[in-house]
Design goal:
The longest helix is centred in the C-terminal third of the chain and has 25 residues, at 317-341. Helix 6 crosses helix 7 (86-95), helix 7 (86-95) packs across helix 9 and helix 11 (180-188) runs antiparallel to helix 15. This protein is mainly alpha-helical. It has helices spanning 3-7, 12-18, 23-31, 50-58, 64-69, 75-82, 86-95, 117-126, 147-156, 161-176, 180-188, 193-199, 203-211, 224-234, 239-259, 300-305, 317-341, and strands at 9-10, 48-49, 72-73, 102-105, 111-116. The relative contact order is 0.07. It has a three-stranded antiparallel β-sheet. Strands 1-2 form a two-stranded antiparallel sheet.
C-alpha cells in the first residue's frame, strides 16, 4: 500500500471512534462485512477507507442502526427476544438451529456463547413452528441438518455450537482474504498438528501456514485450564467436519502452490511430488596414512645456486669457505672411489 493510499485510509482504532463503535463491535462489523476494509486479512493490519466511514456516517439511523446490526446477546436475552424459555433456546442452539457468532469464558471457566440479536429475531419470524411443541421431524434448510437429526443429537447430549461457530468463523475469514496461502492457513487452523503434518509433509509449507495462521479467538485466558478449554473449541473434532476441512485444505493448497512456492532457504524449490529419491552420495575412498614429512636434503650445487643475502659485492667470506670445503670433500670422495675401482 502506497503512502497516498495510507493517507486516504484510517487505522482500525480511529475508524471505530469515527463510527462510534466499541472495539468488539468494530471487529464484528468488519468480520460480517458491515464495514468494508482494505489490506491483508492476516499478513497485515486492515484499514478502512475514509469514503467507507463517510458512507456509514451518512446512513439513516447512524450510529444506533449500525450498532444494532452487531449487537450480541447470550442465552437469557436471546430467549427473551424470541419469546421462548432459556431451556428451549439452549436446545435449539445445541441442535444447530441457532449459530453463535462469538464466545468467551466466564470466571468459572464456563463457555458463554453469544448470538446476533438481528439473526435471532429473523429466525423467530421465519420459523414460528420451532418455538413451541416438539421439534418437527422434517428436514430444514440452511446448514443441512434435519430437525429429526437435531432432535437426536440434542437428546444424546451432542453440542453443535462449537462446530457451527468454527464453520462460521472460517467462512468470515475466507471472505476477507484473496491470498491463496492465507486461505489455506485459515482452513488448516482448525486441524490438529498431526493431521496438518499428514496433509502438508513439506516443512517449509507448514511453516508458511503456521506463520499465516489466524487468531480465531482473540484474548486467550490466562489460566492453563482456560487455554485448554479454548483450544478444544478451536480444533475440529467431528469426523464429518474433519473430512470437510481436509478436503478443503487439499484443494486450497493445490491453488496456492500454482500461485507461488512457499518460502525456503537459498531460494531452492521443493522436490516435485512422486520424484525419485536422490541416490545417496558415494563415500570417499579411505585416504592412506601419510608418512611424516622428511627433511629436504640439498646438494652442494643446489646450495650454491640459492641466493644468499648480503650487503657487499660478491659472496661473503664464510659462504666462500663453506663452498670450498664442500668441493674438497667431494673431490676426495671421488679420488677414493676411483682408486678402489682400479
Amino acid at each position: 500500500m502506497s503512502v497516498m493510499e495510507i493517507s486516504e485510509t484510517l487505522a482500525a482504532g480511529r475508524a471505530a471512534q469515527e463510527l462510534r463503535l466499541r472495539r468488539g463491535e468494530f471487529e464484528l462489523a468488519t468480520q460480517l462485512g458491515h464495514v468494508r476494509t482494505v489490506g491483508g486479512a492476516l499478513s497485515g493490519r486492515r484499514r478502512v477507507a475514509r469514503g467507507e466511514v463517510e458512507r456509514l456516517r451518512r446512513a439513516a439511523g447512524f450510529p444506533d442502526a449500525l450498532r444494532e446490526r452487531v449487537r450480541t446477546v447470550g442465552t437469557a436475552e436471546g430467549a427473551d427476544l424470541m419469546d421462548i424459555s432459556p431451556g428451549r433456546f439452549t436446545r435449539l442452539a445445541r441442535a444447530g438451529y441457532l449459530v453463535p457468532v462469538r464466545f468467551y469464558l466466564n470466571r468459572y471457566r464456563a463457555v458463554v456463547w453469544l448470538y446476533l440479536a438481528e439473526e435471532l429475531r429473523a429466525f423467530a419470524g421465519a420459523e414460528p413452528g420451532l418455538l413451541t411443541g416438539r421439534l418437527p421431524r422434517t428436514p430444514t434448510g440452511g446448514s443441512g441438518t434435519t430437525a429429526e437429526g437435531a432432535e437426536e443429537k440434542a437428546g444424546a447430549g451432542e453440542d453443535c455450537r462449537p462446530r457451527n461457530w468454527r464453520g462460521r468463523r472460517i467462512g468470515l475469514l475466507l471472505h476477507e482474504s484473496d491470498d491463496r496461502w492465507e486461505r489455506a492457513a485459515i482452513v488448516g487452523s482448525v486441524l490438529d498438528p498431526l493431521q496438518l503434518a499428514e496433509l502438508v509433509p513439506d516443512p517449509y509449507e507448514r511453516a508458511s501456514l503456521n506463520r499465516l495462521r489466524p487468531d480465531l479467538a482473540p484474548g486467550r485466558p490466562g489460566s492453563e485450564a482456560g487455554r485448554e478449554t479454548v483450544q478444544r473449541l478451536l480444533t475440529a473434532d467431528d469426523p464429518d467436519e474433519i473430512s470437510w476441512h481436509r478436503s478443503s485444505l487439499t484443494a486450497l493448497l493445490a491453488d496456492a502452490r500454482r500461485d507461488r512456492q512457499a518460502p525456503r532457504p537459498n531460494g531452492t524449490l521443493p522436490e516435485p511430488v512422486g520424484a525419485p529419491e536422490p541416490a545417496p552420495p558415494l563415500e570417499p575412498a579411505p585416504t592412506p596414512e601419510l608418512a611424516p614429512p622428511q627433511p629436504v636434503r640439498t646438494s652442494v650445487a643446489a646450495r650454491e645456486a640459492e641466493p644468499v643475502p648480503h650487503g657487499g659485492r660478491g659472496r661473503p667470506l664464510l659462504t666462500r669457505l663453506r663452498i670450498r670445503r664442500g668441493r674438497d670433500r667431494e673431490g676426495a670422495a671421488v679420488s677414493r672411489g676411483g682408486g678402489a675401482a682400479r
